[in-house]
Amino acid sequence: xxxxxxxxxxxxxxxxxxxxxxxxxxxxxxxxxxxxxxxxxxxxxxxxxxxxxxxxxxxxxxxxxxxxxxxxxxxxxxxxxxxxxxxxxxxxxxxxxxxxxxxxxxxxxxxxxxxxxxxxxxxxxxxxxxxxxxxxxxxxxxxxxxxxxxxxxxxxxxxxxxxxxxxxxxxxxxxxxxxxxxxxxxxxxxxxxxxxxxxxxxxxxxxxxxxxxxxxxxxxxxxxxxxxxxxxxxxxxxxxxxxxxxxxxxxxxxxxxxxxxxxxxxxxxxx
Amino acid sequence: xxxxxxxxxxxxxxxxxxxxxxxxxxxxxxxxxxxxxxxxxxxxxxxxxxxxxxxxxxxxxxxxxxxxxxxxxxxxxxxxxxxxxxxxxxxxxxxxxxxxxxxxxxxxxxxxxxxxxxxxxxxxxxxxxxxxxxxxxxxxxxxxxxxxxxxxxxxxxxxxxxxxxxxxxxxxxxxxxxxxxxxxxxxxxxxxxxxxxxxxxxxxxxxxxxxxxxxxxxxxxxxxxxxxxxxxxxxxxxxxxxxxxxxxxxxxxxxxxxxxxxxxxxx
Amino acid sequence: xxxxxxxxxxxxxxxxxxxxxxxxxxxxxxxxxxxxxxxxxxxxxxxxxxxxxxxxxxxxxxxxxxxxxxxxxxxxxxxxxxxxxxxxxxxxxxxxxxxxxxxxxxxxxxxxxxxxxxxxxxxxxxxxxxxxxxxxxxxxxxxxxxxxxxxxxxxxxxxxxx
Lengths: 271, 267, 162
Fold this sequence. Notes:
The complex is a heterotrimer of chains A (271), B (267) and C (162). Helix content of chain A is 36%, strand content 23%. Chain A is α/β, with parallel strands linked by helices and 271 residues long. In chain A, the strands form 2 sheets. In chain A, strands 6-7-8-3-9-10 form a 6-stranded mixed sheet, sandwiched between helices. In chain A, strands 2-1-4-5 form a 4-stranded antiparallel sheet, covered by helices on one side. The mean pLDDT of chain A is 86. Chain B has one domain (45-265). In chain B, α3 packs across α7 (142-181), α7 (142-181) crosses α9 (198-226) and α9 (198-226) packs antiparallel against α10. By secondary structure, chain C is α/β, with parallel strands linked by helices. The interface between B and C is medium-sized, with 36 and 29 residues.
């Protein structure tokens, strides 16, 4: 008997306004204990999907079940209770700039629990040790490099051992070493803490190295899914364009524009 | 040409409805702040920290400005009063001008430009760098944790700053009038004490400064929270805070003065 | 910013702020007017109160002994009915007179009480019998002109050898 999926999205549609829908009838399942990648071009709707899972945006159609709860039926207290079991790593870390690294990681413990200061101190040190940054505990976020800030944000997000972790473009703008570190941390934390993780990214290399399953999103629809190996061998044109990084294919190089000759022949606008 | 005119009118109407919608949102935001103020008081340390940033750091500009305004009042006031042989009434002029009007209003304007803009920029930047979103993801209500303490800090700081402004101003008027020009010290203070009523003048001045504090801080936190998450967005919001707060202070001042200081004479 | 330093500064700020308020209330303002001393109410009728306002002072021998609390129009006698709150510590005889005076030449108006000689003192709710209305400038001027005109007529009569 299969265990219930951690996240179950069934034919979900969403649009910021009715004229421009962002997601059309998306369906996916996330099995417990797995690391799942949601990949696609910039602006294809993958971040929107993440926000719907987190309860930020309400889908206009379809059903979203997270950790057994139907997200759209929850009131604000219910959503807050659900978020206590989730953690999210934002694209640039989003550390609180007016507190030290230590206070950032201790934030959730202090807000949601009554743990004594000694215990909080030990827990914070353990989390920072897990990401390898115990030594910067007393620094301010502005003194950290991008990669270090993101690792601290990761420690902060897993502070209360959430069951579901959401990663919004965790690989953006990092040097190769930091890339490797973050990728390894995502996988290790997921396995050692018994979590389930969803990674939204467009970095094929790093993502394929750590995920168990991938969903490809394009123009608000799931166009392909499978394990990294399956997708590497796939002959599907969009998948192969994306995986190989080809400039032209199902996603055209040229943005739609009127005829080239006509544009060159048109008179220049007056300055 | 008609098309342009029609478009212009449509834009005007659209702009007006947008402003009304924004005002409605601001009003709901205000109610939300009040409802979520429990944390600001239960964990008073948060509010104390904000009082430091809003109130304590504004003290220098308030004290210095108060002193100078009082001194100018002393100089200019004496100039005019002396022509009618009423130089001894300088204390009354300085005290009533400051306590009733200049104290709350100028302190309010200075507070709006110093502390109000800082609050807007801070909240706007927190929103732009996703710190507010991160807080929401960690199941902490940002209105309770970030906005409400700043709001109450502003409301608490304003009357204290206005009182300091008036007190320093009166001292400045005393320095110029009595020490520099030579108005009789006894007449200065005794006429002042005879004419300044604690209930009517001082208390009303305090009420005004509380009202200004509510208005300025409300505008500051709202603009910060509503700012578009870009550099231009935050800078525009900061400017709007200062301008809107200043206009609000002057308009409210008129309304409150009409209610407080001329209501009795309507008979 | 260390927590203790912030607390110290905020404490200083609040203390200094309250000090400012206290300074204003005590040294600048007239705290006596805020006193909650006991008062008793007395009434008086005036033919014309001029510019007398509620909360105007009641003075006797130049010292403030109370405040005007209410001014109404008595539709029966067509006179103004003024109610005073007099400080309980000051007792006045029953035949005390009340005049409406002006402080300075063009200043605000107040009520002056002149004590009479009666042995019985005023009590709560009593009415003062002797009152003098405010001096109205227009009446004063027309009276002056009338006197001047009468003087001129008299001297003319005497010159004509009456």
